[in-house]
Amino acid sequence: MLIFFSQETSHLLEQYKISFNVQQLSDFSEWEKDRIVPSAFVIEGSNQQYVASILGKIRRDSEVFASLCFSTALLTSPDSSLLDGLLPSALELQKQIDATQDLLRSLKGKDAYLTHQGRLINYLWLRPNYVLQPYHEWKNSRFYRYPLLEAMSLDQSDSFEWLRNLANSKILETISLMDRQRECMYCRSSHLSFIDTCPNCSAIDIKLQPSLHCFTCGCVDAQDKFMHSGILVCPKCHTHLRHIGSDYDRPLENYSCQACHHSFIEGDVQVRCAICEKEMDPNELILNEIHSWRLSDKGRTIAFRGEVFDLSSGFNQLDFISRELFIHDLDWLMVMARRYPNINFSLFGIYFANLPDLVELFNHSRLLQMLESFAQRLRNLLRTPDLSTRTSENMLWLLLPNTDEQGLFGFQKRIEKSMDKLLEESDYKLDCRFVSVNSQKLSNKENAELLLARLFGELL
Hints:
single chain; 13 helices; alpha+beta
């Protein structure tokens, strides 16, 4: 069956009635009354808003989100990536439907696609050559968006954060780098302004003005103040300046602050976010690479086996911060600890070595309950200033400020005791490994990235 959505009487119906059972509707709400799942949807008309509205409702529906969907006119909005293209001939359409049905029959666990990860895997499995492309939109706070991820998300979560989790889980793989941009460290916006400020008082009222330097008394001031009746005279010692290089020269400080009258060579650059209005230094900006993506071999294996349960949700209560922010804060603490010996902190890693294997062997819901129980116990051990992040599905990092070696030892003992008790209550043989380091044992040549990589290597 084909379902045609059209605001007017369709003239294409007769061409397709020969090969298909065709039903014409004007609105998605009409389909929702009977909810008959068709072989494909067709949205007819050149009204972009109408086509986008119907298409969005199809992709967000829990039952037909992955159905083939064609339009009769080219859609120029970012939602065009949610279409399967322009409506082909009846013969070509039948070939596409047959190919999709073959893939659908090989898709396991179709009734278990309750998470947005499962929906996305389902959608991409049925479209083997689909490329998840970023869409550039200057109105968006991050300049880019992924319409398909927005449509597949059940909770309207941040697409880039979800994309990072999918990449860490090896469900998606990159195809090509599309762009590289700097983002606000607070809200991840790419709408940034860069402004020169006075290095002395941070005022923005600075001007480029030529200055002179009197060799006799050392006076440095604006060139205009040396001009008297067409000749150069020092405003401080009143020496007549005749020859540049012997009587005076031009200093490198060509900028002057109108607030504090400080002279300088160049100003300090401050970044101001247009969204959250916070200010930061340029080196505090977060680098974000924009890629195009496709379903990985692991993602196709998950689709084929039906393993689509998102186990990472078991750690949601730990309130992870982003990996980039965690590394930024760790870098800052490492610099502070080297500068001030009284500053002490510890880094603690938890690695679930066989978690991917357990996912394939055991019941997902029971395994998820165990991870949620562990997360709850871990949360009770953490203090308010402690930070946590997840760099992969089975790797957790904890940053513990003001924790010395003795405190780190006690923390690990409590973690081990909690894990032992949890394993006694469970049928799973979870291989849980720990790694830790105190700031007093850090190398001066390491940064946060290298430190995490080194410690992770010790766990493997």
